[in-house]
């Protein structure tokens, strides 16, 4: 059984200094524009010298997260980090999901944060010194090798649980092996096993969790049984938001989700939080894998529970919007808007 937390190969860890950017643009406009051009194409990015500090990391995998960045997601005194945990669908793996499937989304989110920084909207603290933004896309790879565990699937890759032949996640009676995935994801979000992180005080490592297909179903199930994910307030709070792309009803956890919808939450949390997390449902009208109606059941349950839920619908199928046509581009921009809004709110608290 494998547990891998991977950083994206193509996604730069972007450190942006707004005042530094302004200085760089005024003193060296040509070099600064070249820096932006290269940054906006992550596959051809190069380091350049300027006060807009940008660093790019190669592919990294580790069993435990790196040392704590401190309360509020800051390292030292001048960097504000926004972290996104990405959970792939059945048949995928964490690295490929972030590097390929989410490439259009990552590029637009990172570009928007660059533009906001230059315009002074996202990170103008008004004080002395530089305030940097860093956005990090990280991923987990599910524990079950499909070649060994699924007779119906010969495409390789990994899954978060296994099921009998012909059974789907939205009609399964049980998810065999779910507990291992539950532990893997919860340990990544709240890394209590890392001695360098006081997780009880600092809470979630991640600001957003992005789940696709089985990864989205996994999070919809965890939210119904893990009350710690409900609280976004420090200390000890969970992620600020969840993107559930191509989700479906987590059938073995249907009773838990129904209790949540009815307000019967005493078995998972003492009381409903004053500011629950946000959930964005991304649905393809022609999704032939997880029907939209199944995702709407999850949406309606969490809306009834008081979560801040919203929907982005597109004319595609079981996919993450990639902006390949007008409708997909519109949906992609709406997802970017949602993510950037959470990032801005995080940045405002780092000032």
Structure description:
- This is Serine hydrolase domain-containing protein.
- It comes from Cyclostephanos tholiformis.
- Residues 82-326 form the Serine hydrolase domain.
- The structure is a single chain.
- The chain is of the alpha/beta class.
- It has a domain at 4-9 and 78-98 and 136-350: Rossmann fold.
- The protein has 11 helices and 12 strands.
- The protein has helices at 18-27, 29-40, 94-101, 103-119, 146-149, 178-189, 199-202, 214-225, 254-261, 292-304, 326-350, and strands at 4-7, 16-17, 60-62, 74-75, 79-87, 132-141, 144-145, 158-159, 208-212, 241-245, 278-284, 308-314.
- The strands form 2 sheets. Strands 1, 2, 3, 4, 5, 6, 9, 10, 11 and 12 form a 10-stranded mixed beta sheet that branches. Strands 7-8 form a two-stranded antiparallel sheet.
- Helix 1 (18-27) crosses helix 2 and helix 8 (214-225) packs across helix 9 (254-261).
- The longest helix has 25 residues, at 326-350.
- It is globular, with a radius of gyration of 20 Å.
């Amino acid at each position: 059984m494998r547990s891998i937390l991977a950083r994206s190969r193509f996604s730069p860890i972007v450190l942006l200094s707004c005042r530094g950017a302004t200085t760089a643009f005024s003193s060296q406009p040509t070099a600064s524009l070249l820096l932006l051009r290269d940054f906006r194409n992550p596959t051809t990015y190069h380091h350049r010298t300027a006060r807009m500090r940008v660093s790019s990391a190669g592919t990294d995998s580790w069993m435990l997260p790196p040392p704590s960045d401190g309360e509020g997601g800051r390292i030292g005194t001048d960097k504000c980090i926004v972290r996104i945990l990405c959970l792939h669908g059945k048949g995928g793996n964490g690295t490929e999901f972030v590097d390929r499937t989410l490439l259009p989304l990552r590029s637009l989110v990172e570009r928007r944060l660059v533009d906001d920084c230059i315009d002074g909207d996202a990170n103008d603290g008004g004080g002395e010194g530089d305030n940097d933004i860093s956005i990090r896309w990280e991923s987990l790879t599910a524990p079950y090798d499909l070649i060994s565990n699924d007779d119906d699937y010969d495409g390789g890759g990994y899954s978060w649980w296994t099921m009998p032949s012909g059974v789907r996640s939205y009609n399964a009676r049980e998810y065999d092996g779910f507990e291992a995935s539950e532990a893997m994801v919860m340990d990544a979000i709240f890394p209590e096993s890392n001695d360098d992180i006081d997780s009880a005080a600092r809470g979630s490592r991640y600001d957003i969790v992005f789940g696709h297909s089985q990864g989205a179903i996994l999070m919809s199930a965890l939210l119904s049984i893990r009350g710690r994910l409900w609280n976004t307030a420090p200390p000890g709070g969970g992620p600020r938001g969840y993107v559930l792309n191509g989700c479906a009803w987590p059938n073995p956890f249907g009773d838990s989700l129904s209790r949540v919808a009815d307000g019967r939450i005493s078995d998972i949390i003492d009381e409903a939080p004053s500011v629950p997390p946000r959930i964005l449902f991304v649905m393809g009208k022609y999704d032939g894998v997880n029907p939209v109606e199944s995702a709407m059941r999850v949406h309606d349950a969490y809306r009834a529970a008081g979560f801040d839920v919203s929907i982005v619908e597109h004319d595609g199928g079981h996919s993450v919007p990639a902006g390949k046509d007008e409708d997909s581009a519109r949906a992609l921009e709406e997802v970017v808007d949602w993510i950037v809004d959470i990032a801005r709110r995080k940045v405002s608290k780092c000032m």
